[in-house]
Here is the input.
Amino acid sequence: MSFSLTLTLNGAQRDIVLDDPRVTLLDLLRDRIGLPGTKKGCDRGQCGACTVLLNGKRVNACLALAVTLDGAEITTIEGLADGDTLHPVQDAFIEADGFQCGYCTPGQIMSAVGLIAEGRAGDDPERIREGMSGNICRCAAYHGITKAVQEATRRMDAATKGDAA
Amino acid sequence: MSVAKPLPHDAAPLHVTGQARYVDDIPLPVGALHLAFGLSTIARGRILSMDLEPVRSAPGVVCVMTSEDLPFANDVSPSAHDEPLLSDGSVHYVGQPLFLVAATSHMAARKAVRLAVVDYAEETPILTIEEALAADSRFEEGPRVYGRGDVPAALARAPRTVSGRFEIGGQEHFYLESQAAIALPQEGGDVIVGSSTQHPTEIQHKVAEALGVPMHSVRVETRRMGGGFGGKESQGNALAVACALVARATGRAASMRYDRDDDMVITGKRHDFRIDYAAGFDDDGRLLAVDVTHYTRCGWGMDLSLPVADRAMLHADNAYWIPEIRITSHRLKTNMQSATAFRGFGGPQGMIGMERIMDHVAHDLGLDPVELRRLNYYPSAQAVSEDASGGRISAKMKALTPYGQVVEDFDLHEMTEALLASSDYAGRKAAVAAWNAANPVIKKGIAFAPVKFGISFTLTHLNQAGALVHVYQDGSIHLNHGGTEMGQGLFQKVAQVAASRFGVGMEAVKITATDTAKVPNTSATAASSGSDLNGMAVKAACDTIRERMAAYLAQVYQADVTDVHFADGHVTVGTERMSFAEAAGKAYAGRISLSATGFYKTPKVDWDRIKGDGRPFFYFAYGASVTEVAIDTLTGENRILRADILHDAGASLNPALDIGQIEGAYVQGAGWLTTEELVWDDKGRLRTHAPSTYKIPACSDRPDVFNVALWDGENREDTIYRSKAVGEPPFMLGMSAYLALSDAVAACGAGYPALNAPATAEEIWRAIGGMGDEL
Here is the structure.
């Protein structure tokens, strides 16, 4: 039995046919679509390495069944930049040295984009640390991660205000 | 010059866009197979029968192998040839690979291995230290003993003594990228292996043994790891060998990556330790004698346990001169995962044993723990260099470690002074005391810890490295060396060295994947040695090319070779000035070889590990930290409130990367001693095999206030640009978190808290209960 669905992935519509209803969004991305930027850390929703945006909200792709996502809009790390122009969060991670080995970085960045969109942390470091605590970094680049999210939040706020004015 | 600049990681733009490729991200050829191991479910015994028919007939399965299907060496050990890839019929721990499945998908392979029916003759496993001692189950013939003096007599003479027992847990590496390898079959039986490994040469060696081919038939490439921390020094052997065997047997590409739970169940971890100690001292707090006994559970295979246990012994003194000392080390063989390398490699365990003793002595005397430490420090580098007295208690004599190496570069007196001032230790200690006097439920603690860590592989012949550098005719540079990149920033640091030698910008240098076909016979990227060794090897290669270019250009322009200079992307020859690219083009046209190898071996190191005597270390790296914590005495819950660090990276090759290493290492070290608890049940099953049950520090566990500074000094030894190794030493700065928690528990009563590590909330709560109700 096969299952068909349509989703918008990084801005492009994709028709997907699955032979198994148990395929996770993470395996769909990595093994079937060929987008390995989203990482598999624990495959059980506890490390955050596979964080993507699902309809604008951050989710662990390893816990989402692909078959349930008909009509969904998904953004992965590969779809975050606008051509050669990096997203402000990506820029901030480079400037603040928010990584070492880089393996958790795609998940950290997608989680940060989600956190900023939620609008609950602002640039308060304690709230940012709490809001990012679902994304484990074993190298413990947490200082840089926190700084990057703070800085990106400020810049995105300033840009929004600039647009409004 | 590029050296000493705070440049970001070389792959930063790739990391933030998801383009950085790890082994499991590499596109595989059509028809590639995916592998999984079938694992033992008992800790000790023999396999009576193994019915693999259901596995063979499972959907997608292409190939099943047991030890009988292996044509050559069935071994993945890095040392003693005692770790079969697949069980030879005997079972040594829960999680041991018994058989191997190759299937058309990762999921098909994982599902298939569960269908095996294995019948065992189960034996009673050896799990605890007591069980291992009773069975005399150990590596080496008996305990190793290092030291000097007549310690029992000195303890008997000492005006005061303390003694105790300290249990120190192990640690799971939890590199975010689990172990992974791929193998691509080539013509004539050759194989190319991609491996997430710190030691490509070891992978090459083990694959060659397993395939029965010379090492030249195996090429191993490693671009990067998603974290290593020592866990990828030997633990990747099994996956690479398995992939190569399947590739050979089927002619198809093979890929293997451990699922997280499998990774935690199969692979080795940091050695746990029990330390029994006794210390004798005078009324002023001067140590007179120390007797420590290390018991470590090495698991079932020897792996790297001997050098790990040696390094623990070599750090049992930490920063202190102890006139008479005996260090006894039992390396116990148990039916558990084979404990392996982990950042610090035994050093942290030995060192925290000494820090626990210092803490206990300070408590016994009612002295400030920092003052006690300073009183017992090794003499300063200056005092040692100026000492010509030769007297019985001269500075030089007091600089002698228990293993006979003179500590010639001791900077901790000055570093301690600076850190105590910058962290306002005295003021905050008084504030903590005032808080504790006023608050019965939430107690605070503050503690200082120094670190002196020996740099060099203690297996002396490993202290060598090679490099290969090409300059192309357009002036671009191809850089290769034996070191591997796991996030520590080695590739960038070494590229900074290359750019500096040629006087060009970083954009001219292409950093390339570690490749056994380019640089042979490399050592693991371990022991913090990556930049020291590979930086020097690359410098040698660059200088060879530069000298050839200079000699040629001097001849062409009739100038003296000393008038040829490489700087700012240009080469000047007397009054002539040309871009580096033009110079390279001229040299090429002049038929000058623009490719060179470089080689380096660490000088001065030489010692006898059986006697524990000589100079195992080229130099020492130093650090110091102050941590303040708060605990809830009703629940044991705790927080790190503030950490201040001063660390010695010599003349830093890259301050941004070094500070990142220090911050990360402190958090990882504090995790080891606080939240990270490994639990095996009485059947030898690891019950903490996922992040749900094994708690590594998250973003919110980082200290609220975290001040990290580099000590302004250069290496007294002639290292690459006078820098110091920085991978492991700051890990031990996390000791001050444990000591601060102990200080907070001490505020709950009059006795000395018998706090073990990891000091989890439960352990803190237990220790508070042991303090009596003397609040």
Chain B has 21 helices and 29 strands. Chain B touches chain A through 62 residues (CB under 8 Å).
